[in-house]
Structure formats: C-alpha cells, structure tokens
Amino acid sequence: MIDTSIGRWLPFRSRRRTPESFRPRGTSSRISRLSARYDAEVDAALQRLWPKARIYHDREFTRDRADFLLVVRGRGVMIETKVKSDPGLFRGSTLPPLLDRLQRDGRRLVVLVNQGDPTPARDLISTKLGDKGRILVWSGPHHDTELRQAVESLLQQTTRHA
C-alpha cells in the first residue's frame, strides 16, 4: 500500500507541534493580540482609577474565571474583558460558564467589551447575576467615568473579603 499523505513527505511538516503552539479554540491570532493589548489597557485603567487597589490578573485562559480581580478597600469585583473584531452585537455566548460560577459564589462582575452593542449580553448577565453584574463598552480613558461608576456601585454591595 502506498502512503498518499502529503504531510509525511514534506520536510517542514516533520516537526511535532507542542500543545503550547495551538491557538485557543475559536480564537484567531489577531484577536489574541488585540485581547492582550486590551487587557494591558484595562489593567492600566484600573491602576489609574484605583491607585491603592490590589489588582490580580489571571494569565491562564479559562472560560469560568474572570480576567481580573480588583480589590478596593477590602472589597472585590471581578472584571472580565471581551474583545470583538467588529462593531456588531455582543451576545455573550462565552459568558455562561463564568456567570454560572459567579452565581454560585455570589461574586460581583463587570464585563468590559472593546466595541459593539452589549444589549443581548446585558440581558444574559441580568438573568444570571441580577444587580451583581454590569456590562459596558470601554475603549479607552474617555470611558473611565462609566467604568468607575459600575465598579463603585458593585463595591457598595459587596461584603468584605478575608
């Protein structure tokens, strides 16, 4: 029997790919770069708005943990960032595992989207978390006021962390 698989005959295909070289499912490298840049901008904004706060950034890609934990005056709010490549609707299809976990834990959440209309996701967050969740479009310092208001309103609801 003759091997007709072209991949076995090409020399550059002979390298084995390690799991680290795979892209996260459904995420293009362009979106990954945009996401990393957006996370850095959000981190800078959190430091700018709450200079005395502790900011924890989850560097591991997971669907059930938020990207940031912001602890201000002993109270915490989870921050999830979402990057869209187009200005259309943000439906929040990747949010349910995170929302389910936060619903069980009783945590507060702010979802930041770089662009688009978050109305469908706002309904999803409201259904799962009620008044413990917020979503807003944040694309730079000109949206800092909305970010501060969303986080501060949740901080007033939160019980102290140990």
What would the keywords be for this entry?
about 160 residues; alpha/beta; Trna Endonuclease, Chain: A, domain 1; five-stranded mixed beta sheet; 5 strands
Task: Characterise this structure.
The chain is 33% helix and 17% strand. It has a 5-stranded mixed β-sheet with strand order 1-2-3-4-5, sandwiched between helices. Helix 2 (96-105) runs parallel beside helix 3. With 162 residues, it is α/β, with parallel strands linked by helices. Mean pLDDT is 83; it is low at 7-26. It has one domain: Trna Endonuclease, Chain: A, domain 1 (3-Layer(aba) Sandwich). The protein has helices at residues 29-49, 96-105, 119-129, 144-155, and strands at residues 54-57, 68-72, 75-82, 109-113, 133-137. It has 4 helices and 5 strands; from the N terminus they run αβββαβαβα.
In short:
The chain is α/β, with parallel strands linked by helices.
Query: Could you please say which CATH topology applies here?
Result: Trna Endonuclease, Chain: A, domain 1
* Major sheet: 5 strands, mixed
Q: Low-confidence spans: pLDDT under 50, at least 5 residues? A: 7-26
Structural class: alpha/beta
Query: Mean pLDDT, as a whole number?
Result: 83
CATH architecture: 3-Layer(aba) Sandwich
The level-1 CATH class: Alpha Beta
> Percent of residues in helical segments?
25-40%
Please tell me how large the radius of gyration is: 19 Å
Q: Give the topology string: H per helix, E per strand.
A: HEEEHEHEH
Task: Count up the domains.
Answer: 1
